[in-house]
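U., I forgot to send this yesterday:
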Amino acid sequence: MSQTSIPPEADEQRSSSAISLQNEALVWSLAPTEAYQPAPIDITVCRAVQLELEPLRWNNYELLPASMKLTNTGETVILSARWDSEQCPSLEGGPLEGRYLFSQLHFHWGLSALDGSEHTIDGYRLPLELHVIHFAERFGDQDTAQASPGGVLCLVYFFNLKSNPNRFVEPVVEALERILLPESYTKLEPFPLIDLFHAFTDEYFLYWGCTRNGPQVTPLLWLLSRTQEPLDFRQLKQFNRLLDRRMRPRCSLQPSDTARPSKGRHLFHVNPRTPMSVSTLRIEPPEKFAQTRWLVDRQPIDWSSPDACRQYVRLVREELAKKKQPPVEEDEVQCLEDRCMITTRAVQAGTGLER
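Result:
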């Protein structure tokens, strides 16, 4: 009688899947208690527990909306969008139970470039913070979902200052001039939401915490990207010109607002590429590669592969060709290859691939 053998690869996948399911159950077991602890918090990698989960699946974020609206609420700036089809952007996988639908996104900023973000990173604030809000499809709408732990999901992106403007966020920045007054809004020329941020499947932080708006308490599942987005000083200053309901320049963050320490609750570092990370946020590449970095971040590259450098340069060339931009100069390509080789060797050394 013959026996069917299971390929080692299939056995590894089954084992990895089982671990992911166990870890997902662990995350949700914390919701009844930790989802009602105050947010935001201080994020620091040395306090984070490493956790393996299945990759997040990003659906329809590249689709062009039928319409987009930008609103100055007097408290923040909200970008909302509508799609003609039922295929609105959504998230699945990772720690999520079911599908989460995009609801809106909004920004948080401060009086200066040193106090803009709601969360702190190793005790310090960044210039701007973006929240991308989703709600669980099983609840039907966000109002119903926000009453239950896990009903609402918040993706967090941090922005840092660069010498060059971020052309992807420029449509929003230009529109701020038209909504200086509170309770005003303007229509935007539609663009894919993914232009404003990047899709991530690994290297993110996860925790439970709630926000309060008067008597209303909203428990949230927070996912924070380690990779920062750029903007320049001029773009940041446009947010500072917006007026609140008292007709004063509005900063989304009040001086009295403080991020709570992460100690006392679970903070997870999900799917870390570098298990021995000492930096809470991923280190940005040189400024001259900022644009190509943004394009390539959403491409699958196995940095533990000896062929990683070639993959990286090839993807850069392909993305630039698609956008009909000038080709990468030969000296830049050489710099990219050198940088990739250093990164690859470091990863291989950390994973034991290099002898």
